[in-house]
Amino acid sequence: NSRTMSLLSQLEKINLDSVLGESDNARYVTSKILHLVQSQEKTRKEMTSKGSTGIDVILSTLEVKSFKNQCGYRCISSLVFHHCGGRRASVLVTKGGTQILLQLLLTASKDSPPNEELMVLLHTLLAKIGPKDKKIGMKARINGALNISLNLVKQNLQNHRLVLPCLQVLRVYSTNSVNAVSLGKNGVVELMFKIIGPFSKKNTSLMKVALDTLAALLKSKTNARRAVDRGFVHMLLTIYVDWHRHDSRHRYMLIRKGVLQCIKSVTNIKLGRKAFIDANGMKILYNTSQECLAVRTLDPLVNTSSLIMRKCFPKNRLPLPTIKSAFHFQLPVIPASGPVAQLYNLPPDVDDVVDESDDNDDVETETESEVETENDDDKDQHFKNDDIETDINKLKPRQELGRPIEELKMYEQFFPELSENFQEWDLVSKEPKPFVPDANLSGPIVVPTASEE
Predict the structure, then answer these.
(1) Is residue 108, in this structure, part of any structural domain at all?
(2) Helix, strand, or coil here: 84?
(3) Does residue 13 form part of some domain?
(4) Is residue 42 part of a domain?
(5) What separation, in Å, do the N-terminal and C-terminal C-alpha atoms of the chain show?
(6) I need a labelling partner for 377 at 20 to 30 A (CA). Which of 130, 147, 263, 338 fits?
(7) Is the whole model's pTM more than 0.70, yes or no?
(8) How far apart, in whole angstroms, are the C-alpha atoms of residue 249 and residue 201?
(9) Which domain holds residue 18?
(10) Pfam families attached here (predicted)?
(11) For 351-361, how does the pLDDT look when each residue is reduced to its tens digit (9 = 90+)?
């Protein structure tokens, strides 16, 4: 019975007619709804409440091929980006909004040249609702919309207004490893390095999104190897040092952390760790971390740098005859030949631990994307160190008795409190004595006053 419901019913009738001449009427009614959505919280709640068909009507309006109703996109955008946007984005996903927006993106990309305003609106909406849809990466790949955002970035590198939402969508796509491999083959890794370098404090928001996208892409071993082969590890270290030197007021800590996340993703493979050491990365991160210790807000940089250095430091088996270990375990007998002698004859900087991180390549299968969840980004946030024992039971020292338990039972009568029996025992009858109150303690207890004392 409200004004909003009346307009939605009118729009629904126009959608059912689907006549070319009704385009102007649809634009007019949608603009009225947009005005109410932008100005009244009551309207926003009414359209996203349970059982409401408001979003369904707007989405069906967007599917009409006879006109491009940008008021409809702005109406959806106002609903999603206003307060409680996360909940409303989830409602849009459950209504099938992701599939509709991807189809509209595919249709809009066929125009030459594509409508910039429409592309900005579509990518902004997809970037917002993408984290709420666990299968958006698979849907984009099936619909053929995976490379649309990438091509827009390639063709409009200087148009930051369009590139920013496109990068946000690519960041969402890259959480799927199959998509990351596919985008990497189309040159997305090289494209990201064009955006993040050389050092510049202009468009820092674009820089931050590009670093997050690159970190997600480099979690793929195929992309990580591609970055190592092109010498991008040294470039990442150079960018980090530049930001460390110029960010004297620590205003761009998130960008510096984004660079470290990229280095952390690259060093997940053995080639990346070797390239990191060859580029003098251990010394660079150690020196920068020492300078960050005095500032408490830079603790995330120090922690991430420490994880990278521990991951890249050469690992050796015990016993260590070198100065790299605080403990020296000398074998009683060292054979003249054999694997033990070979370990002792290795140079001190050689990593003699078998590394299987490069043995399993990325599997480009459809089933892999099905089991991926939105928590994939958290898997590498905490580096698991195999050299640290976490089992509390194994860390507790085992106390062994010096005598058998049977011999110790003879002393049980002298320590009744240990057997949880607090009654008085008769040593002759070996039975508990009955409790008899003391006669001297009978009667009321009188507490003397100060004058009596």
Answers:
(1) no
(2) coil
(3) yes
(4) yes
(5) 89
(6) 147
(7) no
(8) 13
(9) 1-95
(10) TPR_CCP1_N (PF25571)
(11) 555 555 554 55
